[in-house]
């Protein structure tokens, strides 16, 4: 059977393949320069315990590597072969695979946690329920979900990045709207954090941590 991939998936993958090196070099110190973010990631590591955890849309693998350093049994998946090459080179002890969050191949109920760190920003609103249903499927009852995103109401379309032509849409969302998506997908939102932008960040940023409702498997 031939599966036709949505256009936004194709353009997102192709764009990040072009800019993977420039992106990774520019944001190499993100973990170090965002102490609140990393403190919350450390807390998330405590929540999920000994895993397993999947970092969906892992990019160059910096978040994956950070959580691994905190003892999390974590792997990463990303569309971009360019990003994956960097992630594997920097984190030789972590398994990274190429794939789409629209088609996760993990077994049902197999994960203790799932991380979507600024990766849902490329998913259109009308596709979010499908993606979150996939997250719900692979998480254990009471499994933990991390979602980080830029706060706003207007998407930003990038046509150039790091000296290359790209076609990337960054969908900014309000925390309440994302919480509603999560609730409707069978999650209970347990924590909401909104921080003001740091230098060179155009918008506030939000982190939502949610837990899969055990009874939602029966809905």
From TrEMBL:
Keyword match Methyltransferase: yes
One GO-annotated biological process of the protein: methylation
A GO molecular-function descriptor: methyltransferase activity
Pfam families, sorted: Methyltransf_25
Keywords annotated in UniProt: Methyltransferase, Transferase
InterPro entries, A to Z: Methyltransf_25 (IPR041698), SAM-dependent_MTases_sf (IPR029063)
Highest taxon of source: Bacteria
Domain Methyltransferase: 53-143
PANTHER family documented for this protein: TRANS-ACONITATE 2-METHYLTRANSFERASE (PTHR43861:SF1), TRANS-ACONITATE 2-METHYLTRANSFERASE-RELATED (PTHR43861)
Name this protein carries in UniProt: Methyltransferase
Organism: Asanoa iriomotensis
């Amino acid at each position: 059977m031939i599966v036709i991939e949505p256009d936004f998936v194709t353009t997102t993958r192709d764009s990040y393949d072009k800019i993977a090196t420039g992106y990774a070099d520019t944001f190499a110190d993100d973990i170090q320069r965002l102490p609140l973010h990393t403190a919350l990631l450390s807390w998330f590591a405590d929540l999920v315990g000994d895993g397993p955890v999947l970092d969906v849309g892992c990019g160059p693998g910096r978040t994956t590597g950070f959580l691994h350093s905190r003892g999390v049994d974590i792997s990463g998946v990303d569309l971009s072969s360019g990003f994956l090459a960097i992630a594997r080179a920097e984190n030789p002890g972590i398994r990274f695979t190429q794939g789409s969050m629209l088609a996760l191949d993990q077994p049902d109920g197999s994960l203790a946690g799932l991380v979507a760190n600024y990766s849902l920003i490329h998913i259109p609103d009308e596709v979010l329920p499908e993606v979150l249903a996939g997250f719900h499927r692979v998480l254990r009852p009471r499994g933990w979900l991390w979602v980080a995103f830029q706060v706003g109401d207007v998407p930003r379309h990038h046509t150039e990045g790091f000296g290359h032509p790209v076609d990337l849409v960054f969908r900014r969302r309000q925390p309440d709207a994302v919480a509603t998506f999560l609730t409707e997908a069978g999650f209970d939102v347990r924590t909401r954090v909104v921080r003001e932008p740091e230098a060179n960040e155009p918008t506030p940023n939000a982190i939502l941590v949610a837990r899969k409702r055990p009874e939602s498997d029966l809905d």
